[in-house]
Description:
single chain; alpha/beta
Amino acid sequence: MDDPLDESPIHQSEGLPIRPVSRAVKEIVQIKPGDHVCHIYENAAEATAVAVPFIRGGLECGERCYYVADGLSTASMLDGLAKSGVDLAAERSRGALQILTKQDTYMRSGEFVPAAMIDFLAEAEIAARTDGFSGARIVGVMSWALDSPVSMERLVEYEAILDAFLEESRLAICCQYNRTRFDPALLHDILRVHPVIILGEAVCPNPYYEPPELILRRDERSNRDFKRQRMEWWVGQLKAALDAEQEREHDQETLREREEMIRLLLDSTGEAIYGIDLQGNCTLANTACVRLLGYGDPDELTGRNMHELTHHHRPDGTHYPEEECPIYQTYRNGEGTQDVEEVFWRADGTKFDVEYSSYPIRRGGQIVGAVVTFTEITGRKQTENALREINDKFQQLANHITDAFWIRSPDMSEVHYVSPAFERIWGRPVESLYANPQDWVEYILPEDRERVVAAFAALVREDPSLDIEYRIVRPGGEIRWVRVRGFQVRDAGGKLIRQTGIVTDITERRRWENALQESEERFRLLIENASDLITVLNDDGIIRFQSPSASRLLGYEPEEVVGRRCLDLIHPADTAHVAEEFKRALADSTAPVSVEYRFSHRRGGWRVLQSIGQSIPGEASDGFMIVNSRDVTEDLTSPQGGGETILIVDDESALRSVIETTLRENGYHVAVAGDGAEAIAIYAQRTNEIALVLTDIMMPLMDGVALSCALRRLNPQARIIASSGRDDDSRREQLKTFGVEAFLTKPYSAPQLLNAIHEALTAPPEARMGSTEAKEQPRP
């Protein structure tokens, strides 16, 4: 079967012309040691066309090459070698290419002696092998014999002797005879002693070749014996030719079967494959290639430039010049490429990620094209990008978290990874642990070492995880606490494949825990010995804890009140006020609340307590309010009333009721009003009877400021006490201008109220809050 690439051009080297390569040139290049070739030519061009590939083939095979010139052909041959890509200076410098004359070879003794020439050839072979060459090739231009006293019989004898010599030699010799100058009868005999001939484009075995034993010593045999031996030789040659033809036909059938097998293999592989010639045109494409490129049949690709078809633009859409393409470099200078990641373009104009490799195709030492294999890696690229993103996130996390993260082999003998935090915690470079994976044991405080080693041994054997705290020693002797959590990692089959873990520096936590433990002990002693009451309530007001001081101050043992509702032990007149403050404390945990109230004593009677309470979120699921209370019963000697009438003005009925009860219990008469208008009406009727007005500032219709102004118009000597739940009420300044006696901030205690009323009723005129001028100012 003809080779489709036989006539394809080959690029010899950068900057040299591209020329066709014939089958003859390829076969000449492939001539092997021991071959004795006869070349019959008609002109110098034909001689050069054979000599150049013959010599270049020897150079490529590591042989020393001799050219025995006739004086006229040397320049043409050297020019041909240079154009074929041979570096003449380099080859001649290393002794691989030598130019000889007939005086150096055939006529070196002054006359032509075949045995002497054979000796020269033997010496040349030995010298070449000694100098490191695999053998030698010789081109002999035989025109020298026409200008020398050499008999034609002696020349035929030499060629026959040479043929016998070459059977055991590492030499390959090409004898060139000019058909236009040598006698045809001589050429007839010359051809008979060369087993291989080159005629025009044909390189073939010589059908007229006769072995040396038929040529040499012919005169010693009878004509009958000679003819018998020649007949036997011819019959043998004919049988060999017949066998060769049958073998050729068998080889052709084998070749067809092999080509079919190769095609089946190409089409069955999942990897895409295509071949290109020296113009970059497609010569073959398998099924996977056609499918991935979006075509229906290999014929749609055959003969088309594959770069222009599939590789014309880069991934970013910019033009991709063919001369910059690695595939182009493969068939231009013979440099293969492997695992290049770029994009190819489909028939519909879409691109896809590929990984490709390209390899030069050589025939007879000549590059005739390239084969390209590629696979689509779009999915792999997506996976790689996802893995890269995960790895980047992992590295960012590992590089910035304060905890150290480690990965070790299943038996803990090797360290696969440890994060940079190791150096911060241990005070040692990460590289030291990679270099000496077992040194971590030496960093453990000796008192903890045995316990820790046992825990990790259990992790290696049977425990799926560990959680252990121990102490390590830094290079400077500093001791730090670490918490290590380790985990076994197993594959889908349950095999242990690695150990991983996280290390947290808990030195500060340990210090705080020790400090907290000491603080808790001091706090316990403080509570148990405190003179004040320490009470803990939940959000429902249930007592969850009561300090021992309750026994001394209130007569209750702590366990008698724990679990009871706090308001059940408070004076009924104070419960509403205390409940309101309790709600306020729950609503705002940022500020403590203060309240004064009466609490029942176990042996009867009431004790006055001043309490400060604050809610602490998150301390308990049902709420946590801590209350510190002082018994101020003995400190409060509230002044009693002498039957004076007090007008209470407040829009909150519950508060009016509490104040009314408190004042009546302490010797006062009481009148009440729900708003400012009602208060003015009562005061106008009972001006001489009412000794003091207690009014809230924040009221609907008429607030405390307007009421105070109206009361002063009715009676410039009216005594007024104002109260408000807002300590920063801006209207207090206005109230001063109306001579208000005092200002009470809600919530206030009964003693605070009684003292304020007593001071207002007994204070001389010059000590009152307002001035005479102020009292006479007009209504605001």
